[in-house]
UniProtKB/TrEMBL annotation:
InterPro entries: Homeodomain-like_sf, HTH-type_TetR-like_transc_reg, HTH_TetR, Tet_transcr_reg_TetR-rel_C_sf, Tscrpt_reg_YsiA_C
A Pfam entry, by short name: TetR_N
Keywords attached to this entry: DNA-binding
Protein name per Swiss-Prot or TrEMBL: TetR family transcriptional regulator
Record keyword DNA-binding present: yes
Superkingdom of origin: Bacteria
Organism: Exiguobacterium chiriqhucha RW-2
Domain HTH tetR-type: 5-65
Molecular-function GO terms, alphabetical: DNA-binding transcription factor activity; transcription cis-regulatory region binding
DNA-binding region: 28-47
Taxonomic lineage: Bacteria, Bacillati, Bacillota, Bacilli, Bacillales
Amino acid sequence: MTKNGSKSDRIIDAAVKVIADHGYHGAKVTAIAKEAGVADGTIYLYFKNKEHLLIELFQTKMGLFIDYSKQQIERETTAGDKLYQLIESHLKQLSADYDLAVVTQIELRQSNLALRQKISEVLKPYLNLIDAVVQHGIDTGEFDRDLDYRLARQMIFGTIDEVVTSWMASGFKYDLMSTLPKVHHMLKKGLA
């Protein structure tokens, strides 16, 4: 739940749907308000403008995304299993919410540079989570001790990101989760 309670949650959820359907630039505040079941002006009680709403949307959804991923990863002891949980939680969360997948994979990337920079800040805790998995693997000897963890992070995030983007580009024609074993195998071998 966001800091302003259920009404702001409804607005954020409505924004995800409207932006997924119409694109960020095509999404009108009026349509978001209608989807949320609130008056147009109510949105401005919670968010300064549409850009602020997009940033809050990403912060809220990414916070939940990271919390879930972290819980799954912390249950495991080996780096390989932590990597598996990282990949699984990423794929699982986006395959369960097509609208969120569209917003995070397409719409956020089409925003202006200043907005993308703000969104990059929100993404840092997720990248730190990837770094922790890689560092654990290096420390335990499961992953190559000479790995550059920054490059390893880019490889992991980039691979998962591209798998999700390809799934979306296919029109969601296959089960995204079916890619999990192969993605895990490939990444684990690449890190070992």
